[in-house]
Amino acid sequence: MKILMVTSETVPFAKTGGLADAVSALAIALRKQGHDVKIVMPRFYKIDRSKLNAIDEPVAVAAGQIETWVKFYYANLPGTDVPVYFIDHEQAFGRDGIYGTKAEPDFHDNPYRSAVLCHGAFQLCRFLGWYPDIMHAHDWFCALVPVLLKHVCRNGYFAHTASVLTIHNLGYQGWYGKDSFPALGIDWNLYHGAGFERNGSINLLQAGISCADMITTVSPTYAKEIQTSEGGFGMDGLLRVRSDVIKGILNGADLRQWNPVTDKKIPFNYSSKDFSGKAKCKAELQKKMGLEVNPDIPLIGIVTRLVDQKGIAEVFAPTYGSIYNICTSMNVQFAILGSGETWCENEIRTLQSKLPNMRAFIGYDDALSHLIEAGSDFFLMPSKYEPCGLNQIYSMLYGTLPIVRKTGGLADTVENYNQETGEGTGFVFENLTPSAVYNTVGWAVWTYYNKKDHLRKMQLAGMNKTFGWDEAADKYLEVYKEALARGCNL
Ligand code: ADP
Description:
Layout: E1 2-6, H1 18-32, E2 36-42, E3 53-61, E4 68-76, E5 83-88, H2 90-93, H3 110-128, E6 134-138, H4 144-153, E7 162-167, E8 175-177, H5 189-193, E9 197-198, E10 201-203, H6 204-211, E11 214-217, H7 220-225, H8 236-241, E12 246-248, H9 276-289, E13 299-306, H10 312-316, H11 323-329, E14 333-340, H12 342-354, E15 358-362, H13 366-375, E16 378-381, H14 391-397, E17 401-405, H15 408-413, E18 427-429, H16 434-450, H17 452-463, H18 470-487
Helix pairs in contact: 3-4, 4-6, 9-13, 14-17
This protein binds adenosine-5'-diphosphate.
Residues 17-18, 21, 303-305, 337-339, 364-366, 369, 388-391 line the site of adenosine-5'-diphosphate.
């Protein structure tokens, strides 16, 4: 099958979250099965042109009210033969930030930037003379692709192309004023006709959901949650209408990057047969973070975007959050890596100055995220909602027991500890409250000190799970076939 992934993020070129990992890993898994997969994404300012191959021919793109010109670059995903094409457009992408910056978190011209990418994806196919069976769009930034395919392009060379839209996080939808509509480079008729209109504004994801031949999201539980008023972010009604085309497919982990046996980013490798490297990683992590180097104190890791979705208030909010009480009443350590909302970054700095057993690095640091997964005993992830979540999967693979809230992909991947039998792969709680976080961390810490045999049993159970992408790729292929049957009446 010929598949074009249209995305704003791909590891290692641009990443803000799990979307970037998922796109490249899925592309690689599909390629391994012999499919002809290409990826197209923006050439963000940070992506060094000199490391890419240039195609020296400008191509017209119908974003905005007058045509604009883009240039294509390409490179393979490192270590693979999956080609990634980059759309270079100075006005749209020649600046810092993927969707925004600290000063302007959501660029006001994102509809235009999204249109340059999505129109550009079709132009790339025309330029290459390569017409995919499937255009697979990821999240709101690429949601214009199913719209363009259904209402503008599904004729001629694209007559037998179908669209799939994957929702990696329904919390981000691309809402903009109606005055942004002309930036999309499509007829006003589609404002209502393709489902953009929402309370007098435009909602890019809503239009994508309305037009896609098939819709997927990144775990079976999240596929159900988004169709409820609690988890639907106002989109649940439309999603219920389209429920027959929605499938939840659990993300895998990129095992080339995340495997304690081979991981080059951690100082000591280890496996389920020999944990000695993990103990050394723990000592290294304690040293690096400025914590007391002591193998006998349970160490809890956190790696996260510091945003509301991740349950940060219940952990860090002044007077409300639980971490101060945890750190002062339990013999435990925390190693925290994250960046995001300013109040939370500041609060973590303040807490750190008061709590010798809590150390944090505010920022983005890939190598440290690997060390935290390897060196911690537990990993705390109390998300309000979690479409799939990757860190709990990495944790299990690294013999680090996740402490999670039962939601979305966390519910689908982490099996709660059974105190009688020692079965399970982590510690799970239902309601997101500071006391639930406190109590569940307390339960994990108690188990650490009192049930060492159970702890090891759970570590082994997690490490022996398979979280590869091959199974997910098979499920996506089923979805692609269904999209072709529905979209193209084959
Ligand atoms: P989300 O996509 O909602 O952020 P996921 O758990 O699906 O959550 O994926 C998060 C990914 O981003 C993981 O690979 C995680 O290690 C990484 N990550 C998040 N914050 C940081 C950070 N501050 N430094 C390094 N990696 C981070």
